[in-house]
Amino acid sequence: MGWFKQLMGLEAPAVVTPAADIGPLGLATGKGVMFDGSLRLLLDGKSTVTVPGSQEIWSQGKVDLGQSNWLSRYYMNDEDYWLQVHTTGDVNGQVESVILFNYLSYVTINSEDELRRLAGPQSQIGLPVYTLNGIEYSREWGTERGQTELVPLTEYVRNPGESYSIEHRSMLYARETGLTNRRELLLFSVEQDAEGVISLSTSLGISLYTTDLNTI
Questions:
Q1: Could you report the per-residue pLDDT of 172-183, keeping only the tens digit for each?
Q2: Of 201, 198, 5, 205, which Cα lies nearest the Cα of 86?
Q3: Rounded to 5 degrees, what are φ and ψ at 144?
């Protein structure tokens, strides 16, 4: 079956049980994360991403991108925040990037028409430029002049009570903030969870240095 049938619940993703281990930068479920307090002042006027104080990691996800590239995702007890670490070699290999994301919205999708309107051919998602609140972001994935297809990703998630997989169809946009090596990222993802519920999440993130956070 095709990806849309998976998204609409006709073909559920397989449930897996990944190992709960210590990930890159010492991050893991149950660990605390402390962000550098000076980030708020640094980002003021440059980005609308909110930097929290200390947070506890509730769940962790892993995405195998292939060719020895991995995404480790950490979802905080405060559900407004999540952290993504890109590594190469293996999951705990060389850290290539760290991004702090804020969830902007999470919308449940109930029909094919609604999916087309929100994240399909009738939407801006997948076009070379996306405008949010008057700010333009450039597409990071896809080379088409017009709208491109969303990128499939499978995430394996574990929290203290359960393990499951999520099927994503995602698109990433970015813009420069004027700060060195700190870009603002806009991520859209059509998701199917373990119960077959389809949703569209929108997250706004900021690039971090590894020194911007500590595991506690």
A1: 999 999 999 999
A2: 205
A3: -65, 150
